[in-house]
Every structure is written in structure tokens, then in C-alpha cells.
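Input.
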Amino acid sequence: MHAWVATGRVVTLAAVGLVLWAGPAAADAAEPGDFSSAVTSVEPDPGGFAIETAGGDSFLALTVDEGTEVTVLGYEGEAYLRFSADGTVEQNLNSPATYINDDRYGANDLAPSRLQGVDVTTLEPDWEEVATDGRFAWHDHRTHEMRPDSPVARGESYAWSAPVVLEVDGTTVEVNGEITFADDVSPLPWLALALVVGAAPTLAARAAPPGAAPHRGAAPGAGPLAHHHRAGRRHRQLCGPGARGHGGRGHRPRGREPRPSGR
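Output.
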């Protein structure tokens, strides 16, 4: 069941969850749309991470278990994101994807001129920390529709434009998925999300102890963090067996237990 036809309880939990993810989602929030995106396969399946779509077709969200190292490759095969075994997440400032993914419909000219017309796979990565809890969500243009008009009729689905490639503890993994042109889209879960996002700064300020440092998981200059809750045990507790969260579906490779909450 998609989030836009889920119960009010699930919609509320989805909206609350979406606020907590670090990533470009904070600066470019999800909104009602005609498309949904879903992970359909992870090949091979080494375990140690969960990957899902979030916000309909807006974001790709990755959670990596403690002790596992994952690198997400960008559009040109370069290192884009690095998830270290201790939970540190970094983005590569020498990856065009770092800049292109700031906007849902980003083009290559968003990247700095020093990255234009060069083989970025030959550049030494310049890592910048973006999160510390092994979780990150981002716009990935391989996983959502980039054209102004749908290539299919309503209710039909088609494959992502390309797989998202991960390096998981040295193993190359391809994540594939599909996009669906929805029959209809309800704005109700997105209204709930807007209310939660609007209240997040106040709630965070009340919850933080005096003199507490700002959350380092946010992208530079970002407001409230966007979130897609973790797959596996916690996902089932929030949404029930087989639920797909808030407008997205994902995959937890078998082979390892989910990382205990709290680092």
C-alpha cells in the first residue's frame, strides 16, 4: 500500500520519520507528485545495509549497519558518498553528484567549473562530513522521472534509467528499481509532512539541552532534516508487516541483523 492510501496513523508516522533524515531532502522537500519509485532488486545481496525510496519518488535513503563500509558511486562512476564503519557519512566535493543532487532536476552545469569536462574518476576524493549515524537521503536522478511528461500511461511502471551502484565492503552491488505513474495522488500525507516540518525547529529547540551544538547530520545550510525510517525490524514496528513507508519501497538485504539503535 502506498502512503497516500495508508491509514492516518501510518501517514503521521511517515511524516514524522521523513523529517529526521540528513541530506538534500532538508533543503528541497518532497511534495505531492504523480510518480512513485521503488527498489525492486539488490544484486548481489551481501547484507549490512538497507536502501529504500522515500517521499514518493523524491529521495533514495540508505542506512548502513555499524561495521559495514559502503561507497555510493555517482553518475560517472566516481565515489559520491562514503559510509564508514563507525557511522560517519561523507560526500565527495570532487563528485558532480554532490552538486547535481542538490536539485531534483539538477543538470551537470550545477557542478563547479573545475569538474566540467574532466574524468572525475581520476580525481582524489575531497570528503566532507554530512552525518554521523550511518544514514543519509538524497535526490538520485536515476530513480525518478526527469522528463516533464510521463512516458507511460497512468498506472503503468517502468525501470529506473540506470542502477545505483554501491561498493559494500569491496563488493560491487547494483540496486535496481521501477517508477510508477500513479493513478491518483492524495495531498493528505504531504499536508501532514508540511505541518511536522514546520514544527520541527520548535520541537528541536525545546528538546535540545542548553548550549547544545547543532546537529551535524544536516547538509550545510539545511533546515529541518528529512528522514525515511530504517528498514528491517523498526520499519515493521512502525508500519506493519510488508508496509512500504511513506510513498516508497525498499529492500534490506539478508545476511545481517539491523544495527542496534543508538551509537
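Helices lie at 8-18, 96-100, 188-207, 233-239.
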